[in-house]
Amino acid sequence: MESPFKADALKGKVALLTGGGSGIGFEISTQFGKHGASVAIMGRRKNVLDDAVSALQSLGIPAVGFEGDVRKQEDAKRVVEATVKHFGKLDILVNGAAGNFLVSAEDLSPNGFKTVMDIDSVGTFTMCHEALAYLKKGGQGRGSSGGGLILNISATLHYTAAWYQIHVSAAKAAVDALTRNLALEWGTDYDIRVNGIAPGPIGDTPGISKLVPKEINSKTRDYTPLYKLGTKWDLAMAALYLASDAGKYINGSTLPVDGGLWLSKPRHMAKDEVKQFSRTAEKRSRAAPSGVPTSKL
Ligand code: COA
Questions:
Q1: Which ligand 1 atom minimizes the distance to the CA of 207?
Q2: How far out from the chain centre does Cα 171 lie?
Q3: In what ranges is there compositional bias, type Basic and acidic residues (predicted)?
Q4: Which of 26, 113, 115 has most ligand 1 atoms within 8 Å of CB, for mutation?
C-alpha cells in the first residue's frame, strides 16, 4: 500500500531499531528508510541482519546492521556508539526487540519469567540509557521539538489479562511505565518525546505464528471490531505518525494498533433482542415501581 506520508517525512533523521531485522521491526525500518531516514538495525542473528540490510540497501536506504543483545549493557553501548560513528548522530530509537513464548503461569520457571523481563523491560531501559546522550542532541530542525524520539513497541495483553502470557504482560506493563516516566523526565529536561505502539494480532509476523495456532488465528477475526488482522504496514504507519512532525505534540502515549481488539467481548445479546428487552424492561419498571412509594416521599 502507498504511504499517506510525504516521502521526506523523516528526511535527514537517523534511526536505530532493536529487533529491526525481522517482522514488525523490519517493516518499520523499511518505512522509516522510504521516508528519508538512515537506518541502523540491531539484532542477535547475523544472517537475519545481513539479509535485512541488503534488502534495505536495495531500496536505496542507507542501512547498517550491528549484532548485539539488548540484555548486555556493553552491546547496547557499543551499538549506539557504532550507529553514531556510522551516521554521525542519532535521532530516533525504536525498542522492538522482544522475547515471547506461550506458557502457563504454573509451568513457567522464574528464569523464563526473568528472561522476558530482561529482554523487553530491562533491555528497553538499557537502550534508552545508552542512547540518551545522543538523543539529547538529536531531532533538531524541521519544526520538531528539540530532542530526539524514543518509540517502544509494547502490547495490549496487560490492559486486562492474557492467557499463558504472564511474563510478557508483566514485561510490557513495565515498558509502558518506562514510556510514561521517560516522557515526563526526558520530555521536560531534554525535549525528547517517548511514545509507544501496542500492536494487536498482526498477520505474517513471528509473533502471530509463534503465539496463535492457525485455527485460533482465523477465529480472531470474529472478535475484532474492525474484523481483520492487522498488517505490518499498519504498525509502520503508526510509527511514522509518531516519529514525524505530525506527532510532535504527542509524548508519553502508547497507541494501540489492534483494530480495537483489546476492547472486544463476546456479544451476549443480539442487536434486535436488546431493543425489545430494553423497552419491555422499561415498561415493566414503570408499571410496577420498586422501592419507596412516591406518596411517602
Ligand atoms: N516455555 C517455557 N519456558 C521457556 C520456553 C517455553 N517455550 N522457552 C524458554 N523458556 C525458559 C527456559 O526454560 C529458560 O528457563 P530455565 O532456565 O528455568 O529452564 C528460560 O526461559 C530462558 O530460556 P533460553 O532458551 O535460555 O533463553 P534464550 O535467551 O536463548 O531465548 C527466548 C530467549 C526464550 C525469549 C526465545 O524465545 C527468543 O529469543 N525468541 C526470539 C524472539 C521472539 O520470541 N520474538 C517474538 C516476538 S512476539
A1: 48
A2: 13
A3: 273-285
A4: 115
Q: What are the φ/ψ torsions at residue 257 (nearest 5 degrees)? A: -125, 80
- The count of other CB atoms within 10 Å of the CB of residue 297 is 5
Per-domain boundaries in the chain: 14-266, 268-297
**Lowest pLDDT segment from 91-105, 166-180, 182-196, 212-226:** 212-226
* Average pLDDT of the residues in 157-173: 97
Q: Give, using CA atoms, the residue closest to atom 20 of ligand 1.
A: 112
Please say whether the dihedral angle defined by the alpha carbons of residues 169, 175, 178 and 179, taken in this order, is positive or negative: negative
**Atom number of ligand 1 nearest to Cα 44:** 39
Residue nearest to atom 38 of ligand 1 (CA): 99
Q: How far apart are CA 180 and CA 176, in angstroms?
A: 6
CB distance 183 to 252 below 8 Å: yes
- Whole-angstrom Cα Rg for the chain: 23
CB hemisphere CA count around 291 (13 angstroms) = 5
14-266 is classed CATH 1.20.272.10: no
pLDDT value for 227: 64
Q: Which of 44, 101, 165 is the best mutation target for the ligand 1 pocket, counting ligand atoms within 8 Å of the beta carbon and taking the most?
A: 101
Q: pLDDT higher for 42 or 267?
A: 42
Q: Which pTM was predicted?
A: 0.90
For 116, list phi and psi in degrees, rounded to 5.
-70, -40
Query: Per the structure block, which three cell numbers stand in for 226?
Result: 474492525
Cβ-count burial of 92 within 10 angstroms (0-12 exposed, 13-18 middle, 19+ buried)? buried
- CB-CB contact of 237 with 4 (8 Å): yes
On the CB side of 17, how many CA atoms lie within 13 Å of its CA?
31
Q: Are 78 and 55 in contact (CB under 8 A)?
A: no
- Max CA distance (Å), the chain: 84
The three grid cell numbers given for residue 194, joined into one nine-digit string: 517517548
